[in-house]
Amino acid sequence: MKSICVFLGSSAGNHPAYMEATAALGRELAKRGITCVYGGSCTGLMNELAESVLAAGGEIVGVTVQALKDKEEFHKGLTRLHVVPTMHERKTLMIDLSDGFIVLPGGIGTYDEFFEVYTLRQLRFHSKPCGLLDVNGFYEPLKLMLAKAEQEGFMKEPYRDALAVSSDPSHIVDLLIAKAGQ
To answer: Is 54 helix (H, G, I), strand (E, B) or coil?
Structure first.
């Protein structure tokens, strides 16, 4: 696995565990020589991810849209920053640049990114592994919702077969690598 895209919040969240897990994931990716692809921001969890990858000697690639590039500040130390015209093109490029996806806590933008890659995987537009880094029980409600959708006949493939879940940054990377080999 050469690269993993990480979807996560541009805010830090209300619990220190979110920043700690983000930093641990960044260090883990760098240690394994896995390039990290993310949104490029220098705020919140996104900044922590970039800082931890870079501090551990890794590569971090940002992907953003021109409208955000024009009004927001992006991390100055990025290995590369790709700028595209639309959010759709942004997500498409993030998918194309990545061999797998890890989702940390975040808001509606993070959910949008997760559900797009997860849906595309379910529909077999790609076979790249997807995982949730379930820090501080953040994704417990989502796991219940997915189980309910499966139980009620709205998901053909059991979500547990298509989605790796762990609360440990090193373990989630192990799970994605294992799923990539299947």
So the answer is: helix
